[in-house]
Write a structure and sequence with these properties.
225 residues, Beta-carbonic Anhydrase, Chain A, 9 helices, alpha/beta, 7-stranded mixed beta sheet, globular
Amino acid sequence: MVEHVKPHSGRIPPKGVTVQTAHTTHAVPAPGDLADGVARFQREVFPAKADLFAHLAGVHRPTTLFIGCSDARVVPELITQSEPGELFVVRTAGNLVPAHAPGTDGVAASVEYAVAVLGVTDIVVCGHSACGAMTALAEGADLSAAASVAGWLRHADASVARTARVAGPERLSVLIRENVRAQLANLATHPSVARALTAGTLTLHGWVYDIRSGGVTDVGPAATG
């Protein structure tokens, strides 16, 4: 049974940050808007947090690895109201985490660095509503013109198979939840994660974020050692 939770349940410490909002008439920021945003950050936001940034210049000790989707509507630091330096963020299409395999892999390297070097105590895999990657899989979209995308989404094959009997509009939401659980299982195959779980120093969390409501649903159960 899933339950609606506040983002800071379990061992994840509460966060607090003042969020600066930028007003723009563009649906997607143009380069000029981004430059204006940088200027506003330097003028209004940075001075208020100057001591924090001075501290972070020599210290990098995030407590949580947050693995989310690349979708521009999903902003981990905003959703969790985290300060700079608190989240180590990895974003991939469909919030996919390939199971451990020999060879070099950017996601695997980031996971290993976060767990084995930085010593994070929590990992969140966060899916979200209206996910384009999951929508393509749920609807059987033709990805022949996007071979790299199609290849990447093969990492969700198990989730697609497990939800194959679900029909209609409900399938997308079921697939999104199942995909988060599958990525938690994939994470546990990574040696650094497996060691930390066995030692009891790491907890895995599965979330789904609803873009329209802002709600976060825990789709665990959380995996622990």
